[in-house]
Write a structure and sequence with these properties.
The protein is of the alpha/beta class and 331 residues long. Helix content is 38%, strand content 16%. It contains 13 helices and 13 strands. The chain has a seven-stranded mixed sheet, sandwiched between helices. Strands 6-5-3-4-7-8 form a six-stranded mixed sheet, with helices on both faces. It is globular.
Length: 331
């Protein structure tokens, strides 16, 4: 049948029966075609939305358009190469949410290097444990976090704000992808550590392209405006607000931290339509329903999606009573 991928008996044996995850050699018929690296896939799909904001800083109102995202990615990739980042190297990012995050992701991955993250709230010893796992060649961070990270690798931490201030931007320069393909490792993300020591998982470009394709298909509305309050350093935030949102050409309003009043203010000011949260946020939203509706215009918000852990039925019912016009769903 047209559009169907036929899987051989040998290929079928590589699928895990409990998770459905394919662990075998790359087969282009099992993924979006043509096979691309994640930056190629995302930037090609954002080309038609060049003047539209891709990311907005909720605190300052600064916006990063899709055209700027492409130009900054090319410039950041060139600067990282000058710093010695090469294919297969790991670059560690330690920072709160910011407009710089998606650019750094795409720049690192376009070089064939691997992007990794650590929660900026972790202790030095916890981050050191991750560093000993994979030996990054570069740590990208903020000025206030640099002292905690200094000495973890031979090179001092690179300050993100200074790095971007030094970029030479040529809006006509293409983003180059030196032979990076679907089988190459792209990201090394760590678990949150709720059940013990954080564990690292390597995702290939093929993994991430497939995920972005699926999420774009499920939530592929270009007019969507997201509020990002979960950490971009975690796979939940990374997959939705970088992979899916950029692929769909949607807009993401980035909050550096979760504070309920700041979130509600961002929903009102930027006409947010979709909010992704974790259960404790739903509980707080439900408890504050009357005050929230009285003080903020939330009429643009049509759906709240809760993920990360199960949400109790009583909390779902309380939320439905507090916000009768907003759909609450679990994914």
């Amino acid at each position: 049948m047209a559009g169907c991928a036929f899987i051989t008996r040998e290929e079928r044996s590589f699928f895990c029966p409990s998770t459905g995850i394919y662990n075998g050699p790359w087969n282009s018929s099992l993924a979006p075609t043509p096979p691309l690296s994640l930056p190629q896939f995302l930037l090609s799909h954002s080309a038609s939305s060049s003047s539209k904001p891709a990311f907005i800083d909720a605190e300052t109102g600064a916006a990063l358009t899709f055209a700027n995202l492409r130009a900054l990615t090319a410039a950041a990739a060139r600067a990282l190469a000058i710093l010695g980042v090469r294919r297969g190297d790991v670059v560690l990012h330690v920072s709160p949410n910011s407009l710089h995050f998606p650019t750094l992701v795409l720049a690192v991955m376009s070089l064939g290097a691997v992007f990794s993250t650590a929660n900026f709230l972790q202790t030095r010893s916890d981050i050191q444990s991750q560093v000993q796992d994979f030996g990054p060649v570069l740590i990208l961070t903020t000025a206030d976090l640099a002292p905690k990270l200094d000495g973890l690798i031979p090179r001092p931490p690179t300050l993100i704000d200074q790095f971007f201030a030094s970029l030479s931007i040529d809006r006509n320069a293409p983003v180059e992808f030196p032979g990076v393909g679907p089988v190459d490792p792209a990201a090394l993300m760590y678990s949150s550590g709720t059940t013990g020591k954080s564990k690292g998982v390597v995702s290939s470009h093929g993994n991430l392209v497939a995920m972005a394709s699926v999420l774009r298909h499920v939530w592929g509305r270009r007019e969507e405006v997201y509020a990002c309050v979960v950490p971009l350093s975690h796979m939940f935030g990374f997959s939705v607000f970088v992979c899916r949102a950029v692929a769909a050409g949607a807009t993401v309003v980035v909050l550096r931290r979760y504070v309920l009043d700041e979130l509600l203010m961002a929903v009102e000011e930027h006409r947010v339509t979709l909010l992704l949260v974790v259960p404790p946020m739903v509980v707080q939203l439900a408890r504050s329903g009357g005050v929230a509706r009285a003080n903020y215009d939330l009429c643009s918000l049509r759906e709240v999606i809760c993920s990360g852990a199960p949400l109790g039925r009583d909390h779902m019912e309380r939320f439905a009573d507090a916000y009768p016009g907003i759909t609450l769903s679990q994914r």
